[in-house]
């Protein structure tokens, strides 16, 4: 499922959609649309309020179950240990926090800006007997209400692309990490295998919205999710942003030919 390719990605093809660099002043991307910066958070909240109840089912359908393998690799990279404390940003319905606890990790904070997603995560934790050592907190990843140097690991899986100010999220992640702590991001990225691109585009823009309509009764939210993937910084750009935020020893590994990637950075 994974490779350790660290090559500079090729330039995006036209099917990758517009790039974020052409935003009019005071706007940001919401999928392929430009929207006022002040409105994006509420728009994203509406998307996840809509999809929360079907989120896990749709993840399996959207990725053909591959997201489970990606998350397993990601949790292994986090290196769960009883003495380490995890902050799981945009943790949603809990997969990363659950994997951390099952792997022998210490206390975890499952956080998300969206209370609908947290509610699903709380129900899932109760049904799995994973409440001990797990705290649920509504958190805006751009303004984390946690003291400096207070956690050993910060994770964000399939959440950073929905944040308005991604660089600020990275800065906040570094701030709350203890020296020697590690930040890890799992996110959809830029496909590195040319033969995959047309298949992936067709799946993203033709199949996924239809599945969203059929399974979750919400075509528009899944159209946004497909578009948000194309607007997300590619592997090298995100690595540079992490360095700009003050993280060091930055690296990444591609998963499934670059459909997703795990980025890693440390607070030294």
Automatic annotation (TrEMBL):
Residues 18-28 have a biased composition (Polar residues). It comes from Novacetimonas cocois. CDD domains: AdoMet_MTases (cd02440). The lineage of its organism: Bacteria, Pseudomonadati, Pseudomonadota, Alphaproteobacteria, Acetobacterales. Keywords: Menaquinone biosynthesis, Methyltransferase, S-adenosyl-L-methionine, Transferase, Ubiquinone biosynthesis. It holds the Pfam family Ubie_methyltran. This is Ubiquinone/menaquinone biosynthesis C-methyltransferase UbiE. Residues 1-32 are annotated as: Disordered. GO terms for molecular function: 2-methoxy-6-polyprenyl-1,4-benzoquinol methyltransferase activity; demethylmenaquinone methyltransferase activity.
